[in-house]
Design a protein that fits this description.
The chain is α+β, with helices and mostly antiparallel strands and 55 residues long. The protein has a domain of 27 residues. It contains one helix and two strands. The chain has a two-stranded antiparallel ribbon with strand order 1-2. A hairpin with a 5-residue loop joins strand 1 and strand 2. The model has no long low-confidence stretch (mean pLDDT 88).
């Protein structure tokens, strides 16, 4: 943390920020991300089907 002293003697602490990462454009979603999204959609559809069957 960097600490500065203000007028009047008060100390002001600033958190150290992480480095920024540059993400290149044109990179698509990975296979694992697509599978995770597809699994989530299927889970939601299954839950809706169960809710409809119960009611």
């Amino acid at each position: 943390m960097s600490v500065t002293e203000e007028d009047g003697g008060k100390l002001n602490a600033f958190a150290r920020e992480p480095r920024m990462k540059v993400i290149e454009t044109g990179t698509g979603r990975s296979r694992s991300t697509i599978l995770l999204l597809l699994g989530g959609v299927m889970l939601v559809l299954l839950m809706l089907a169960v809710a409809v069957a119960i009611s």
